[in-house]
Amino acid sequence: MSTPEKQHWENVYGTKAEDDVSWFQTYPKTSMDFVASLPVDLSANIIDIGGGDSRLVDALLDKGYQNIWVLDISAASIEKAQKRLGADASKVHWIVSDVTEFVPPVKYHVWHDRAAFHFLTTEEKIASYVSIAENAIHPGGYLVLSTFSENGPTKCSGLEIRQYSEASMVARFAASFEKLRCITEDHQTPFGTTQNFTFCSFRRI
Description:
single chain; alpha/beta; 7-stranded mixed beta sheet; 29% helix; 30% strand; globular
């Protein structure tokens, strides 16, 4: 079923080049540093939520991870990533879904989300995301989450977002996750502007 959110993201990925969006990174260093800090082996199930045509999947493949999943609401974004990867795309599990309606087919050892969660602005959708993550992540597994900080933008791609501090992010996931570490990071966009992010990792209790 097409929703306004899906239509928005299909349009974004259908009309913009890879480096014509603010979140573009040639190499996702901070995300990879967080993943590398986790005690999981190369066979771990790792999912990138809102992965779109992010290059995280490329970096994970380069490191030898064998069970990578990429979820995005936009089919166009996933098609772009598959085209970029070529034959390597067959090594990845691709899922087109709204994360708040996602039914995980497996349990994940690592759930990574850079800048998808903050697009959820209603309590209903936020609660749905948290519940799905709780059920999808192995006990003892990990959540790596990044959003705009309270010093970051209030909008992205023309949409309102919800900012998070370390404290508010930790509180949101406190029922089932313990914080490992949090940082703030300035992301330099392709347009020469700066966006401040809150980046945290958690262990599923």
